[in-house]
Amino acid sequence: MRSFPFHLIALAAALLSASCSQIIEDVKPEGAGTVIATIGQETRTSIGEEEDGARKVLWSEGDRIILSAGTASNLKAIYKAADYGSATAAFTPEDASKTVDFSAGIIAGYPVEEMYIGKPDGNTELYFTIPSEQHYVSGSFDEGAMPMISDVAYEPVLNFYNAAGVLRLNLSSESSAISIASITITTSEYISGECGYIPNSKKIFFDDSMICSNQVSLICDGGVKISSSPVPFYIVVPHQTYSDMSICVTTTDGKQQTFRMKSGKEISVKRSTITTIPLLLNQIDDAQDPKFTIKIESVTFENIRVSIEIKNTQSYFCGLQTKESFLRDLDSGYLLESLPYTNPYTTPLSYTGNITSFQEALGDVLIEAGQSYVIWFVPYDKNGEYTEEDLKYVETMTKGFTSGGSVKVSYSDLVIDMTSISMTVSASGSSYIYCQLLPDEVLLNYPEEKDKINMLLTPGSGSTVFDKYQDILIRKQLRPGARMTLIAVAIDRNGKYGPLLTEHFETDHIPYNDLEVSIDKDLAAFRNTSTINWSSTGGDVVQYRYILKETGSHLWQNVFEQSVEMAQETMYLSPGLYYITSLEGTSAKISNLTEGTEYIMIVVAVDADGNISVADSWTFTY
Question: Is 500 exposed, middle or buried (0-12, 13-18, 19+ CB in 10 A)?
Fold first, then answer.
């Protein structure tokens, strides 16, 4: 099932050399009255016999395509080939009651079993699968492995093209007794799994919210014999540039040879092309167990220097976790049970250096002083079966902070307004500055200087940490009229902390003016329009702020009843409020209220100088 001639084009490749065969034939559709599907400038399911120097791809008996107009009542329809054996074939509805209307535009895909099609509006993706396990077919690729797409059409003439490319591995051997059982390709990029496609873009992308993999395997059922003359093995892969690839060939007697891409090389696979890679099997050995070497070279208060080497495996899982997190995941079974649903990393791996430089592969873990960490590895298993015997790990603890440092923290350019404090904090020669801005009443829980420092340096305490030496800007949203204290300590490069900086501040109260805001408390009108209106007097309003909550769950209810001033200050500062500019009007559309439930609405007005009105509130039962 293919209609494309292939012409060889030289390509710079990675392993040895690679070539592309591009489909360039343009088949003109013909016929009317039913859906005409043409395998156009690109291809489809299998590679046909060579004719006049070109390989043809043809529709086959029983082929089915899926068409979608993207409407809820007619999401998709299956059409079946009425004829076959050529690049252009007529297709008729498999179910006469399910057809599509071309007037709004339809998109189509093949094969039916691997396609999900959404609305063809240029924004909705079409989804399909590039199988992670494909089966050897002599002279072609696996039936159904190559997805085809026809972009938005407004008449019953469909022009299909391939959504992926093909790798042709030409295997030869110095021995005539070799039989291939499987070939596994591992890449740093996704190479199989769930793909998305936006109509008319000619580009695919992997959706990592679904199942995607860095591996694709070709299974040779019963074994395929190779000799000194190259034997082609075809594997469907996404059209993209591969910067890291390894190919592991396994024989029927369990021996293996792995080919790896040279550093700095690339393989570019184009859509609807065959990229050829010749591989000579001349170093086949018994499959060896993976070997992991992990050595901790040094530990500081902020870092771990580690040497890691992995051999005899194409891919692996790895992690960097706190010891507490690692033991919890291991004891619960989550660590090993989650591996089949995680993408493995590719090899080879040989690394020496600070663990912070290795974190891109291991995960985003903040290395903190005085904490225990575990670095672990599990070799990939194609059957997805993992036990604790497969797990290799090493643990270590970073050095903790110590007293006796001489670096002092200072500040300048202090600005205090009614909602924030900003300043430049510096400590020349320090490695880190830990600081917090806290209400004075909170600091009563830390009476001694040592207590405050321990709180600052405790992981998860909420401290702000700066890794620069100067010109650090501290900002924090505050309640007007608040009494606050800044505490900060500098850490030198050896993990020693200096004297504690303690500075007290008090923010201004909110200024009030003659602004007044009044809610239109008309429940009948609100029920009719689902809109609450209000008005203001006494000044030029630039913004309204409001909140609507159930009275039982409203955190400010008692505050509002106790003090109008306190409630309006809360309204002025609290996140999660609704904001409406004066240009947008003086009303709010309200929905999803529950019948019989009591609600409270609070509205305030703000002028250009930040002055806020006295708040108005309305408590009502909907």
Answer: middle
First to last CA, the chain: 65
**Residue 594 vs residues 361, 528, 549, 555: alpha-carbon distances, Å:** 49, 15, 11, 19
User: Helix (H, G, I), strand (E, B), or coil: what is residue 207?
Assistant: coil
The pLDDT, as a whole number, for residue 196 is 77
Question: Up-side HSE of residue 102: CA atoms within 13 Å toward CB?
Answer: 13
Yes or no: say if 404 and 339 are a contact pair by the CB < 8 Å rule: no
Averaged pLDDT, 572-577: 54
Q: Is 130 helix (H, G, I), strand (E, B) or coil?
A: strand
In tens, the pLDDT along 152-172 reads 888 888 888 888 888 999 999
**pTM for the whole structure:** 0.56
- Give the strand pairing for 50-51 and 54-55: antiparallel
- Give CA–CA dist 340/382, Å, rounded: 9
Please enumerate in sequence order all residues whose Cβ is within 8 A of that of 495, keeping only pairs 6 or more positions apart, or say none: 300, 301, 302, 369, 399, 400, 401, 402
pLDDT at 4: 28
Residue 496 token pair:
């020693």
Query: What is the bridge-based pairing of β-strands 410-416 and 35-39?
Result: unpaired
Alpha carbon separation from 33 to 25, 81, 139, 297 (Å, rounded) = 25, 14, 36, 75
Burial class (CB in 10 A: 0-12, 13-18, 19+), 321: buried
